[in-house]
UniProtKB/TrEMBL annotation, chain A:
PANTHER family: GLYCINE BETAINE UPTAKE SYSTEM ATP-BINDING PROTEIN YEHX, OSMOPROTECTANT IMPORT ATP-BINDING PROTEIN OSMV. The keyword Nuclease does not apply. Its main location: membrane. This is Quaternary amine transport ATP-binding protein. It comes from Halomonas heilongjiangensis.
Automatic annotation (TrEMBL), chain B:
Keywords: Membrane, Transmembrane, Transmembrane helix, Transport. The chain crosses the membrane at residues 12-32, 47-67, 79-98, 110-128, 140-160, 180-204, 216-241, 247-271, 327-349, 356-378. Residues 180-375 form the ABC transmembrane type-1 domain. It is a multi-pass membrane protein. It is found in: Cell membrane. InterPro entries: ABC_transp_perm/SBD, MetI-like, MetI-like_sf. SUPFAM superfamilies: MetI-like. Pfam families: BPD_transp_1. One of its GO terms (cellular component) is plasma membrane. CDD domains: TM_PBP2. GO terms for biological process: glycine betaine transport; transmembrane transport. This is ABC transporter permease. Belongs to the binding-protein-dependent transport system permease family.
Length: 314, 388, 250
């Protein structure tokens, strides 16, 4: 659990972070979003003390971070940055084993852990262990970056725009993989990004920052439905917000049991998002869809009225 | 981004404290009755008394104090103080001369002690530090030296008669002029010739990868051989040519003299020249070349109107490196009878006459610095869009 | 021959050939008397015999080696100090001086050292040390400052101490650039040390100076040959060292 109490950071006469309070629960993925220079990276780096805060308190599992030795603190927090920061003079395996080696794990245990992580992140040991970072693609390098951060099995992971420099398709894949990993590992993750779609897709909780302050925080859906002000609304996509909301809800949450009426020809999978369902309706010129499961068996139906959540009496 | 509150500048106080220690602790000047006898050293307080010596500590201390709470205005004050101190050095030498040198002894001379050199060095470092802290341009840096040079010129012309360096110069002012002229001529000829040959070689090598490897291989090899050795190795074949080929002998080609010196200088100069020309021509953004071709410029037009102008600053950088290097190497060439300022150095070393060594070494140093500054400024000028 | 030895020989072949030639020339110069006799038919003596060539070579190497070692320690040390937080104040001055100082011709530096330090071997070492510092400082600074800030950030973020970052990340990454500076420095030092013969240090410059003074071209060629071979040996060894580092990572 990470807690920030009224934390402020000043650089000279400028205030980069202005009295923010925040609580990230154990196993939660919290995304800090905002325009560049809003203080989100500074906030992240104050947690592992790469930047020292000027006022307020930051607690890790109830302990002020200042009580920890700087290096010991960082060794128990995973850290991933946009440009990977892999050591160019070390091969992949050695890069991944960095923190365990700093922690003086026995050699065999490090070796085992590196192998485990490489298979976890889809990097076959045989073809990647001895490669140097410059021989990797952007996506592979960032996988190594994530593996390195996870090496000593930290409870907490700090990620600073980890997928910001990747092409859209690779970014998509890695986001999916991160979601997958998180559903298995349940780390406490603070994730900085300026890509709202990424944040909406990954976060359990969204924290919107502007000019060093937290403007709004909450579950992604709550923010989409009820943005605090115009800034948050425009950051969330302005009029396109509805689509983003639709993309966060699954068809099975809205579908109704099959009615005795004729079964609609157009079909959609129960795990698809409402946004995808809407697209199917548009394409098929249909206002009603049959919802199917993995075996192509109809399990329910979804009407346009139901999809957009219109009240029954309207 | 991060903006630091003004923190104490620790560099200037350190420089000034070392300067004070040198001023009070080291030999400032030495006095010798004639050229042969080694001089007697005098510390600052032995010349002007403790009151004077300690009084002179005030301006450096003021610089240190000003730098401890630096603001642009305070640093500018410190800069003025440093320039004034540099101007005071010759005046102080004049004072020492009138106090220490017996006017009855026309041969008596004033030598410069280690304190003097250390002070000069530290003050110049302070000047560099202030220039970069105040973000002054190169030009302003040189302009700052003008009053200092004026002060020196005034002092040398009027009251520094007994300065040993000046006496050495007086004794051979004609020789000195010839040596400077020879030195410059050799450097000029070597740089000029290597510029022509170097650019031609670079152009020739550009389309052929094999030629590039071979060419750079030979040039690298040449550059690796120490100058003294290369001069030496050229002696034998040239001596033979001079003895056996008449028209070459008539030109003055002999084992010893300007011929091997010039050849070796050109050989050394070729590597930086070819390398920079090559890198300059290859380094032009391919997108620019592509768009020039796309607009319908001919190959020739692309080369003359696009590639060459864009490459010029880097080529000039090569000329700068070459010139500075040649100025130093020409000094070595004096050993094989090529003339130039190196002659004074080796003559002085042979006779253990240190002021004669200085008479050779100082102008070489100045020449190198001036050539470096001038060509550096020129290359900056030629950057597209003018000086930045 | 074991494969390791074969690979080593292949890698170090060129420097070894130059080294072989150098040793051969220092030991067997007298065998070439006929050639030098032809070059210098009128002289009484055509082989420099005042001191053994091997001794001269040893002295040359000693002076260059001591000066270069000290210059490496001091130069890399200075560059490391001014790139640490506490020494950063001194960075602009040191950087500017290191690049400006390379404008000074080595001969002038050598000549200026003599009035201050006197004649003999010590002033040569000091002059070589001072001058050899500049390229090392300059390259070390370039190497240390050229490291991707992200690598630095990641290293600290992973919990490496400043010392670990310096030893395991910064110095290994800067090593190729530093090594290139050392190469420049040593190359200049070998050449400048030869000039030391004019200020009373005895080394491979001796035969050249003596040949010039006595008008004996054979002496000059012998000295020049040995200095040239020495420079080529050392330079090609550095070439291998640098090439080898370049292949491992970029």
């Amino acid at each position: 659990m990470i807690e920030l109490f009224d934390v402020t950071k000043r650089f000279g006469s400028e205030t980069a972070v202005d009295g923010i309070s925040l609580r990230v629960e154990r196993g939660e993925l919290c995304a800090l979003v905002g325009t560049s220079g809003c203080g989100k990276s500074t906030t992240l780096r104050m947690i592992n003390r790469l930047i020292e805060h000027s006022a307020g308190e930051i607690h890790l599992d109830g302990q002020p971070v200042r009580n920890f030795d700087e290096q010991a603190l960082r060794r128990r927090i995973g850290y991933v940055i946009q440009s990977t920061g892999l050591f160019p003079h070390w091969p992949v395996a050695r890069n991944i084993g960095l923190v365990p080696r700093l922690l003086k794990w026995p050699r065999a245990r490090i070796q085992m852990r590196v192998e485990e992580l490489m298979s976890l992140l889809g990097l076959p040991m045989a073809s990647f262990a001895d490669k140097y970072p410059h021989q990797l693609s952007g996506g592979q390098a960032q996988r190594v970056g994530v593996a390195r951060a996870l090496a000593a099995d930290p409870d907490i992971l700090l990620m600073d725009e980890p997928f910001g420099a990747l092409d859209p398709i690779t970014r998509d894949t890695l986001q999916e993989e991160l979601r997958d990993l998180q559903s298995r590992l349940h780390k406490t993750i603070v994730f900085v990004t300026h890509d709202m779609d990424e944040a909406l897709r990954l976060a359990d909780r969204l924290v919107v920052m502007d000019a060093g302050r937290i403007v709004q925080q909450g579950a992604p859906l709550d923010l989409l439905r009820d943005p605090a002000d115009d800034f948050v609304a425009s950051l969330l996509g302005g009029d396109d917000r509805g689509f983003k909301e639709a993309a966060l809800t699954r068809v099975e949450e809205r579908m109704l049991p099959l009615s005795p009426r004729l079964i609609a020809r157009a079909r959609v999978h129960r795990e698809a998002t409402l946004r995808q369902a809407l697209a199917v309706m548009f394409r098929e010129h249909a206002d009603r869809l049959t919802v199917i499961d993995d075996e192509d068996m109809p399990v329910g139906e979804l009407s346009l009225r139901r999809l957009v959540g219109a009240r029954p009496h309207e | 981004m991060r903006r630091d509150a003004p923190r104490p500048n620790r560099v200037l106080p350190l420089l000034m404290l070392v300067a004070l220690a040198a001023w009070l602790g080291l030999v400032a000047v030495s006095v010798a009755p004639n050229r042969i006898v080694p001089g007697t050293g005098f510390r600052a307080h032995e010349v002007v008394g403790w009151a004077g010596a300690l009084g002179a500590c005030l301006p450096p201390l003021a610089v240190a104090v000003l730098a401890w709470h630096p603001s642009p205005a305070r640093l500018r004050h410190a800069l003025v103080l440093i320039v004034l101190l540099l101007m005071a050095l010759p005046a102080w030498l004049g004072l020492a001369a009138t106090r220490l040198v017996d006017p009855e002894l026309p041969q008596a001379r004033l030598g410069l002690g280690s304190a003097f050199w250390v002070l000069l060095f530290l003050l110049l470092l302070a000047l560099i530090e202030l220039r970069s802290r105040l973000a002054l341009s190169r030009l302003v840096g040189w302009v700052l030296l003008v009053p200092v040079l004026l002060a020196w010129w005034l002092a040398l012309a009027s009251w520094l008669e007994p300065l040993a360096l000046l006496q050495e110069y007086r004794a051979r002012s004609d020789q000195f002029a010839t040596a400077v002229w020879h030195h410059l001529a050799l450097v000029g000829a070597a740089v000029g010739a290597s510029l022509v040959i170097g650019v031609a070689l670079a152009l020739l090598m550009r389309p052929h990868a094999g030629l590039q490897r071979a060419g750079f291989g030979v040039l690298n090899f040449l550059q690796t051989i120490p100058s003294l050795a290369l001069f030496g190795l050229l002696l034998a074949p040239l001596a033979w040519l001079g003895a056996n080929v008449e028209w070459l002998a008539a030109l003055g080609v002999r084992g010893i003299g300007w011929a091997p010196a010039l050849l070796a200088l050109i050989g050394y100069s070729l590597l930086p020249m070819v390398r920079n020309t090559f890198v300059a021509l290859e380094g032009v953004d391919p997108a620019v070349i592509e768009s020039a071709r796309g607009m319908g410029m001919s190959r020739r037009q692309v080369f003359l109107q696009v590639r060459l102008p864009l490459a010029l600053p880097v080529i000039l950088e090569g000329v700068r490196i070459t010139t500075v290097q040649a100025i130093g190497l020409t000094a070595v060439a004096a050993l094989i009878g090529a003339g130039g300022l190196g002659g004074f150095i080796f003559q002085g070393l042979g006779q253990a006459a240190m002021d004669l060594v200085l008479l050779g070494a100082l102008p070489i140093l100045v020449m190198a610095l001036v050539a470096d500054a001038l060509l550096g400024a020129l290359s900056e000028r030629l950057h597209p869009g003018g000086a930045r | 021959m074991t494969p390791g030895l074969a690979a080593g020989l292949r890698r170090w072949g060129v420097p070894l050939v130059w080294l072989g030639l150098l040793l051969l020339a220092s030991l067997g110069m007298a065998e070439l008397e006929a050639v030098f006799r032809w070059l210098e038919p009128d002289s009484r003596e055509v082989i420099y015999r005042r001191t053994e060539f091997l001794t001269l070579l040893g002295r040359h190497l000693l002076v260059v080696g001591v000066a270069s070692l000290l210059a490496i320690v001091a130069g890399v040390g200075a560059a490391v100090l001014v790139t640490r937080p506490f020494g950063r104040d001194f960075l602009p001055l040191v950087a500017q001086f290191a690049s400006m100082g390379q404008t000074f011709p080595p001969v002038a530096v050598l000549a200026l050292a003599v009035p201050v330090l006197g004649f003999g071997t010590l002033p040569i070492i000091v002059a070589l040390l001072l001058y050899g510092l500049l390229p090392i400082v300059r390259n070390s600074l370039a190497g240390l400052q050229g490291i991707d800030p992200a690598v630095h950030e990641a290293a600290r973020g992973m919990g490496m101490s400043r010392g670990q970052v310096l030893r395991q990340v910064e110095l290994p990454l800067a090593a190729p650039v530093i090594l290139a500076g050392v190469r420049t420095s040593v190359t200049i030092n070998i050449a400048t040390a030869a000039l030391g013969a004019t200020v009373g240090a005895s080394n491979l410059g001796d035969p050249i100076i003596s040949g010039i003074v006595n008008g004996n071209t054979a002496y000059i060629v012998q000295g020049a040959l040995l200095i040239g071979l020495l420079a080529l040996t050392v330079d090609s060894a550095f070439e291998r060292l640098l090439g080898w580092r370049r292949i491992r990572f970029r």
